[in-house]
Amino acid sequence: MLSGKEGHATKKSMEILVALGEIYGAKKLVRVSSVQVSGVSYKNLGDAGIEFLNELAEDGRARVKSTLNPAGMDLVNWQSQGIGKDFASKQLEVIAAYTRLGLEPSCTCTPYLAGNEPGFAEHIAWSESSAVVYANSVLGARTNREGGPSALAASLTGRTPLYGYHLAANRRPSLAVDVEAKLTAPEDFSAMGYFVGKIANNGIPYFRGVEGAGLEELKTLSAALASSGGVAMFHMERVTPEAKGVPSGTDAVSFTRRDLGETAAALNDSGDPDFISVGCPHCSLDELATIARLLKGRSVTREFWVCCSRAVKALSDERGYSRRIEASGAKFACDTCMVVAPIETMGYKVVATNSAKAVHYLRNNGLQVRFWPIARCVSEATEAR
Ligand code: F3S
């Protein structure tokens, strides 16, 4: 592959992987069974990114199941989102290049809810940070926090350097977290992840004493841990397949009721939101059911996006949730989200959301934020009919 016998795109990809392997001291490459590529929004890629993808697409081809992270717009209903034509045509060019490369335009940060769900101990190369944490910690698959180019290189070669989280020795906990706060909603897990991510930084927290962590709690916890810090994996009793306690002498911290309150308060600016969005990471089917129930008898009074994958939206269509959500005036934002869509250029100033990760990146994008539970997001975005 490195010699160029298998084509230009494969050679370029292998050069990236060899360079990475040398930097991190990998002894060899390992085959991957699944790839997830970030760097899909035109907002982040720009024209140089399109040029790079088009060059690879001349002879490159995905060798394993490979899916994409959210794009900068709903690929079908971008006009109703207020996305400009210039941005839309560039975004569609990006998707066309990835599709020519053989990647599935699933455009979601929850690939595990959309048909890309690796199993225990499988080596994979994923780059969406929240999905990386979920894959390592909940599914027990093995991935480093790939960048977009290195994940794409893994797709086009079917391999990744064997280092970091691919090795059992690097998947042991480094910090015990005693959860004393009572966590009653996914937003509490989000705040906890934000708090712990800052302390753990690049380490592996081990959560003790957590009750009632389901899919929604674990995906928002994963997202928050990866946004305030560089966390790629956590352990949680009864959740993480590899969770077997912490080695003696491991540092420990507590997460108290006070920490929960202070973290949630710090995730709030002031201001009345002109844009409200839920679904970071992309909504599960159960979350869509909840939103449909909360919207019963209500009409939307300000811009309100429900972000999810097209795959989960299709299931929601079948169950009748989508019809009930759209009847209120709420908009589905498939393929995209409030962070990667260019909403800051569309005149919005204050965004309310139920995700600490979204708060983090929306602030980086220059927006004011409110961190509210999902029920409050829905009630503030609507009025009774
Ligand atoms: Fe997904 Fe966008 Fe949040 S990519 S994890 S919904 S910032």
Key traits:
385 residues, Aconitase, domain 3, 5-stranded parallel sheet, 4-stranded parallel sheet, 13 helices, 16% strand, binds FE3-S4 cluster
Could you describe the 3D structure shown?
With 385 residues, the protein is of the alpha/beta class. It folds into three domains: 8-168, Aconitase, domain 3; 172-266, no CATH class; 275-381, Aconitase, domain 3. The protein is 39% helix and 16% strand. It is built from 13 helices and 16 strands. The protein has helices spanning 8-24, 42-56, 85-100, 129-139, 148-157, 186-200, 215-228, 257-266, 285-294, 310-319, 321-327, 356-364, 374-381, and strands spanning 29-31, 34-37, 65-68, 124-126, 159-161, 175-179, 205-208, 235-236, 251-255, 275-278, 298-300, 303-308, 331-334, 350-353, 368-371, 382-384. It has a five-stranded parallel beta sheet, with helices on both faces. A four-stranded parallel beta sheet has the order 8-7-6-9. Strand 2, helix 2 and strand 3 form a beta-alpha-beta unit. The longest helix is centred in the first third of the chain and has 17 residues, at 8-24. The protein starts with 7 loop residues before the first helix and ends with a strand. The mean pLDDT is 97. Bound molecules: FE3-S4 cluster. Residues 69-70, 109, 130, 223, 280-282, 307, 337, 339-340, 357-358, 361 line the site of FE3-S4 cluster.
